[in-house]
Design brief:
Largest sheet: 7 strands, mixed
Strand content: 15-25%
Radius of gyration: 35 Å
Number of domains: 6
Oligomer: single chain
Shape: globular
Length: 1135
């Protein structure tokens, strides 16, 4: 079942313009985007149907029933526009649109708002709010309403018949060991020395402020730059900000007005610059990272608040069947499978709900009734959804000064659903069947946090993936051609096809079909270029830490049997009393799982669990998956794809504050022995004979570092028993306020997401810290040499982890998060591997960290592969006399004069294609090709569409120029393959023609296909291959050109590896000392035979002279036009 698709107009703030006091949206057709159904879209569609008539006669505007506008980070001027937009709305032609009072699910990162026409909004907003509440917590109500924006499968259901039982959260304050946390530093605790530095720092900050004020005042004045010298030397003359940020130097106050030099930026803007002798150095003590300079300190923590079942719920087997039957209604019976858990979305309800036979469980335990958070009883034989109060986002009424539920009971809530015409259950996603042999990417955040890591472990980790790439290159890199190696190329292509992000570029399908038809095309220039680009991209992803390991991303929930025991406590009439329920809610539950124990049916043993984004090594969980020896295990043994976590532990805080409402954990298997890795995949690293040396060093490293261990797994790279950093101020809430546009606008305008900045700074800290540890471990530096830096970096890391928690809280409160200036200044440049994220290299810094050293090796490997797929392919084609590839896609029966008229128009089209292609290549430099950010994903989607549109445009224009396929195919080859240029254009303009011709020039095929019993393993996927022979076709006679070719120029050449016989034959031609000349065909190439010796003719000469139809004809030499050591240009007659 696929989610239903709708059209939405998605725009950005810079498309909003003001005319005559009103805002107007300057939209484009490309802004209309297809998106999946949500409860919000479903309500809008229902209202449109109810209204019955069109809102406007303009067909385009009539399509725009829902509009999103992203504002992102804004300038002061843009903020003014945004404020007006939020409060007053905008016009599309004559239709007015206003803000819908909700936010996108990732609002705090994207700052995206939703708008609809006033006609629709009048009916829509009450349905979203469901109940009029004048005083509420803005953030919680906006995000509660935002549940309606999630993409869903809309499962039709009579919601009034739904039995939803919500019980109190199990919130405890527990004393747990091995915890610490960051708190505000009390300046009363400063030492005398710290007080001195603190006072000097305040004076320095005042001096810096004064300096910049004076500089700003100076540069705003009228400066006659003609009287100043243009500074020469980028690092000799700098602006005050550059001296401060790059060298920790301050331009002296008396020097600010000394105008002697200026610099220019790329756009030509001029700035006054200064030399070093006009500055003073800042005391390094004032830039140290310490408690007094950051305002934070680390303390040990003895107890924390734990919510054991945060966001957790269950659905009954019977209700699950309803959902499952709908979701699998389009599948054949044999393809249907058990769905074990659902991410559900209803107004004010969000959670992840594993399927458990709760009715039978309660029956067997003698629990006939459960009382909910309102003190209302639920017959356990009728419960469809059982969840904790954290799934219910309806505690929004603050009119009494306290947070209260909007509803008096669950029936009132359901009545509101019916009244507001909600007629379905929203399933955002569901637990898919686990792929036992799946390989998923890890991240650079994880690798940067692993302080024991070196480049050697990274090379070993990358080996399984690297071997797959090396296998795909076997046919090119081996001394002899082994045609069966094409199977590895085919497997690699099939993986590209399976992981394609869109259907826009279909060359990979063309390539697979091409190789299935003719094995020699594996050496085609267009194909090898395509293959190199994909391998290069995969290797560059490795440089971003995206190394594929045997692992799965899986939903996580709590201890289900513990949860059922907890729910069973609310089964007496005493639970009608709130005080009694509250007492039960803070009682400690004895769960089935203990500290570090996890459960997933069918999985046992040690695993590594990670939650992204990771900030510290201590967030990585060394997990032990156990079998449960309990009779109640029968209720959960079907849950083979959902991780269950223990209760009464620090696990939630440890792993980035995850909850159980739909979060996923990365489960990494430990079945790969790093110590056994073979680095042959490095392909004679960089062709500098370093391969054996590299392998020896890596083996020596493993034998030394892991002495006595036969098996080294990923778990051995991560330190255990580190202190868990907890967020002491977790769950800080926002005070209530009036629910009106004024307050909503204020909240949106105050949003300032720093999540990316926090994680980037933290990555820089960890990268630098890893570099220090490497130097200590290698003996380059002693611990004493770096102790002060390690102390500073460790404190910085803990503060940034704390800031991550503050940022999460800020999304609920609208509070501003401030990063200490000394940390921002120290770590203001990102690691060099950020260039693979699209960052300008000039703003990055190189270190000696494991990941950066690994990147250098991979960059060398990329260079090696480029040589293999370029020079080595050319040499191999010549050495093994591989038939001229263009001969397989050229029709020799078509004469040049038949397609000559199309040559020039196609050349112009080829030039147009090249210009537009180069434009897109330049545009790509400004797009982050690897980021998971929604904005970058959308940019890549638009970019791919531009490529697709260009391919389509060129293909159609080529057909317009030359509608006859055969003629177009030959003409395109004449201006590409025979000119050794533009192979890419050839396959855009005539791929259909080429594939048809390859069908007539088939060789045996090396076919691969996915199969469970296949004998080729590709990162957990199995493939089988078969060799398919073809019946040899009878040779047909080429229709010869009987016309005489006069005064035609031929370029004849020999190569460095050619025999002495050929070199002598060339000399005979140069000296005109031969007896006979004629044209012959050899391996698909047209050659000139000089007294029995064949020499090559430049392919550029083929087409115009129609040489392919002159095989066997006599050549008469008229003149020797040009002579060079290995070639000669001659004028001839041919007949």
């Amino acid at each position: 079942m696929k989610k239903i698709q709708y059209e939405v107009l998605m725009c950005t703030l810079n498309q909003v313009e003001e005319h005559d006091g009103n805002l107007h949206l300057n939209w484009e057709e490309d802004n209309f985007t297809i998106t999946s159904e949500s409860l919000l879209i479903r309500q809008i569609q229902n209202i449109r149907f109810e209204i019955g008539e069109k809102i406007t006669k303009n067909k385009d505007i009539e399509r725009a029933h829902l509009i999103t506008i992203k504002s992102g980070k804004t300038t002061k001027k843009e903020k003014e526009v945004l404020e007006k937009l939020l409060k007053e709305g905008f016009y599309l032609e004559d239709v007015h649109y206003s803000l819908i009072k909700l936010l996108g699910g990732s609002h705090h990162k994207q700052v995206k708002q939703f708008y609809t026409s006033d006609v629709i909004l009048e009916k829509l907003q009450p349905r979203i709010d469901m109940k009029e509440v004048s005083h509420t917590t803005r953030a919680k109500r906006l995000t509660s309403n935002a549940l309606l924006t999630t993409d869903i499968y809309a499962v039709p259901y009579e919601v009034k018949d739904l039995d939803i039982c919500i019980i109190p959260d199990n919130e405890l304050n527990l004393e747990l060991p091995n915890m610490n946390g960051i708190v505000k530093y009390d300046y009363k605790d400063m030492t005398e020395d710290e007080q001195r530095k603190y006072s000097e720092k305040i004076e320095l900050d005042a001096s810096i402020k004064t300096m910049f004020e004076e500089y700003k005042k100076l540069t705003k004045g009228n400066i006659d730059y003609s009287k100043l010298k243009l500074a020469e030397g980028f690092n000799t003359y700098k602006t005050p900000s550059r001296w401060l940020n790059e060298d920790n130097r301050l331009v002296m106050s008396e020097e600010i007005s000394a105008q002697q030099y200026y610099t220019k930026n790329k756009s030509g803007e001029k700035f006054i610059a200064y030399t070093e002798n006009q500055t003073i150095v800042i005391n390094e003590e004032l830039l140290e990272i310490a408690e007094w300079s950051t305002g934070y300190k680390l303390i040990d923590v003895e107890s924390i608040a734990v919510n054991n079942f945060d966001g957790m719920g269950l659905v009954s087997w019977e209700f699950s069947q309803v959902l499952q039957n709908y979701l699998q209604s389009d599948l054949k019976e044999e393809d249907k499978h058990l769905i074990t858990g659902y991410q559900l979305r209803l107004p004010q309800i969000k959670g992840f709900f594993p399927m458990v036979n709760i009715k039978t469980y309660f029956e067997q335990k003698g629990v006939s009734v459960i009382y909910d958070i309102f003190g209302e009883p639920h017959d356990t034989s009728k419960i469809d959804i059982l969840g904790c109060e954290s799934i219910f986002k309806a505690k929004l009424d603050t009119s009494s000064g306290k947070k209260q539920w909007m509803w008096d009971n669950i029936d009132e809530y359901k009545e509101a659903l019916v009244t507001n015409k909600y007629d379905c259950i929203g399933v955002a996603n569901f637990a898919h069947e686990i792929r036992n042999n799946e390989y998923r990417n890890i991240t650079y955040q994880l690798l940067s946090s692993m302080l024991k890591l070196s480049q050697n472990e990274l090379l070993a980790l990358a080996t399984p993936q690297g071997e797959m790439i090396a296998n795909a290159l076997n046919i090119y890199r081996k001394e002899e051609i082994e045609w069966e190696d094409i199977k590895y190329v085919q497997v690699y292509l099939n993986n590209i096809l399976e992981n394609k992000e869109s259907d826009d570029d279909n060359y990979v399908e063309t390539a697979i079909e091409m190789l299935n038809l003719n094995k020699y095309m594996v050496f085609d220039k267009k194909f090898t270029s395509f293959l190199f680009n994909h391998i290069k991209q995969e290797l560059e992803q490795m440089c971003l830490g995206r190394i594929k390991l045997h692992s799965n991303y899986l939903y996580v929930t709590g201890d289900i049997l513990g949860f059922l025991k907890y729910a069973s406590k609310f089964n007496t009439e005493e639970c009608k009393d709130k005080e009694h329920r509250d007492k039960l809610a803070i009682e400690k539950i004895e769960g089935t799982l203990k500290e570090n124990e996890f459960y997933m049916a069918g999985t046992t043993g040690e695993k590594i669990l990670v939650r992204n984004p990771l900030m510290k090594e201590s967030e990585v969980e060394h997990a032990t998956f156990i079998e449960i020896k309990d009779e109640d295990e029968m209720y959960i043994r079907h849950l083979k794809n959902i991780i269950q976590s223990p209760v009464n532990t620090t696990i939630f805080q440890k792993m980035g504050g995850f909850d159980e409402d739909g979060d996923e954990l990365h489960l990494i298997h430990l079945d790969y022995n790093l110590k056994s890795s073979d680095l042959e995949w490095m392909l004679n690293f960089n062709y500098n004979n370093k391969m054996e040396e590299l392998k020896e060093k890596v083996q020596e490293y493993f034998n030394s570092k892991y002495e006595g261990k036969e098996v080294v797994t990923f778990a051995d790279l991560i330190r255990k028993d580190l202190k868990v950093q907890v967020n002491i101020n977790d769950k800080v809430g926002e005070e209530g306020s009036e629910w009106d546009i004024e307050n909503i606008s204020e909240f949106i305008l105050s949003s300032n997401d720093k999540t990316g900045t926090i994680t980037d700074i933290n990555t820089t800290i960890l990268n630098d810290l890893n570099s220090l540890y490497r130097k200590v471990n290698s003996g380059e530096l002693s611990k004493d040499d770096v102790s002060i830096y390690i102390k500073e970096f460790s404190l910085s890391n803990k503060i940034m982890k704390h800031k991550q928690g503050e940022m999460i809280d800020a999304s609920k409160t609208g509070a501003e998060v401030e990063i200490p200036e000394v940390i921002k200044k120290r770590f203001n440049k990102r690691p060099s591997f950020y260039k693979y994220k699209g960052k300008d290299e000039s703003g990055l810094v190189k270190t000696n960290s494991a990941l950066e050293r690994f990147c250098k090796k991979i960059e060398g490997l990329i260079n090696s592969i480029k040589v293999i797929l370029d020079d080595k392919v050319r040499d191999k084609v010549k050495e093994f006399k591989v038939t001229n590839l263009s001969s397989y896609i050229f029709n020799n029966e078509i004469s040049y004069n038949q397609y000559e008229e199309f040559i020039e128009p196609l050349k112009k089209l080829k030039k147009e294609y090249g210009k537009k292609k180069n434009g897109l290549i330049e545009e790509k430099k400004n797009i982050n090709m690897y980021s998971k950010n929604d904005k970058d994903k959308e940019a890549r989607k638009i970019y791919r569409k531009k490529w697709s549109d260009l391919m389509k445009e060129i293909r159609e224009k080529a057909k317009e120029i030359c509608p006859v396929n055969g003629l177009r195919g030959n003409a395109v080859i004449a201006i590409t393959y025979e000119k050794s240029d533009g192979y890419d254009f050839a396959w855009v303009a005539a791929s259909d023609v080429f594939l048809t011709r390859l069908e007539n020039n088939q060789t045996e095929s090396y076919l691969v296909s996915r199969s469970a019993d296949g004998n080729i393993d590709y990162l957990g996927k199995k493939y089988k291959y078969e060799i398919k022979a073809v019946k040899k076709k009878e040779n047909y006679e080429i229709k010869l050109d009987g016309t005489k070719l006069e005064d035609y120029e031929l370029s004849i050449c020999v190569y460095s590896k050619d025999s002495d016989e050929k070199i002598q034959a060339l000399a005979k031609l140069k000296n005109e000392e031969f007896n006979n000349l004629k044209l012959v065909e050899e391996d698909g190439y047209i050659k000139i035979n000089i007294d029995g010796t064949n020499l090559g003719i430049n392919q550029k000469c083929y087409a115009e002279g129609n040489l392919k139809q002159r095989i066997g004809q006599t050549v008469k030499l008229n003149d020797v036009l040009k002579v060079s050591p290995r070639s000669v240009k001659i004028s001839v007659d041919v007949n």
